[in-house]
Amino acid sequence: MSISDIIKTKFIEEFTAISAGDMVSALLLAFLLGVFILVIYRLTYSGVCFSLRFALSLVMLCMVTCLAILTVSSNVVLSLGMVGALSIVRFRTAVKDPADTIFMFWAIVAGIMTGAGYITVAVLATLLLGALFMLLNLFSGRYKSHAYVAVIRCGEEAEGAVMSALKALGKYKLRSVNTRGDALEIVAELNLPENKLSKLTRLRKLENVHEVNVISYNGGTML
Fold it and tell me: For residue 153, how many other CB atoms are within 10 A of its CB?
């Protein structure tokens, strides 16, 4: 048998049949794992506006990945075609929270393991990752950030009093001082416990201080 015959037999004409029962059971398991990932995502979500659409997409992502792996595992040519098809896809949706990327990757990996037939590994790994993520989320809650950005608008003669008041509150970092006519806009970053937050807003009572805005800051976005 020539090399061309071997290639034709092994790579082009050889397909592994996928029974309907195997497909349904794999998709059902992928659905259950996706729902579990969705529940962990909801329980550990720390934002304000929860996106149900994104959460449901985690379940669909797990199932679609499982179906893709089931398909490409039946024939080498199909797997190469799938790689070529996916290489031209460009995903341009901005992910604001790095944790969202982790959950998307988690759903994809769970779908890959399920589609590849590693049922025990998929279930145990998903349960273990979920437990560890919950534990890390509880542990990180003790070290919640208390960073704030204060925007203070005042007259030029009040600059010294404002700086002294900020220094009295504790550690702070001056971000910018903008001059607008006879007024100043002072932007400072502070790390304050919640019981001292009221002292920051009292800067409004200083003479020639016109406005004090306090914004919660998590290091990447304003909340």
Answer: 17
DSSP letters spanning 33-82: HHHHHHHHHHHH--SSS--HHHHHHHHHHHHHHHHHHHHHTT-HHHHHHH
How many other C-beta atoms are found inside a 10 Å radius of the C-beta of residue 128?
Answer: 10
Structure-token match 């001082």, residue found: 177
State how far the alpha carbon of 48 is from the alpha carbons of 42, 44, 51, 141, 223, in Å. 12, 12, 10, 16, 9
- The tens digit of pLDDT for each residue in 101-125 reads 889 889 989 988 998 888 899 999 9
Instruction: Please tell me the distance from the alpha carbon of residue 152 to that of residue 149, in angstroms, as a whole number.
Output: 10
Report CA torsion sign: 108, 109, 110, 113.
Answer: positive
Q: Could you tell me which residues are beta bridge partners of residue 95? A: none
d(CA 163, CA 165): 5
Q: Look at residues 138, 148, 150 and name the one whose alpha carbon lies nearest to residue 218.
A: 148
Interval 54-89: pLDDT, tens: 889 899 989 988 888 887 776 555 555 555 555 555
Q: Verify that 115 and 19 share a domain, yes or no.
A: yes
Of the candidates 57, 69, 56, 55, the residue with the CA atom closest to the CA atom of residue 27? 69
Containing structural domain, residue 190: 147-216
168 & 155 share domain: yes
Q: Rounded CA gap, 105 and 107, in Å?
A: 5
Q: What is the DSSP letter of 222?
A: B
pTM, full prediction? 0.63
DSSP 144: -
- The CA distance from 78 to 84, in Å, is 10
- The reply to whether 124 and 38 lie within a common domain is yes
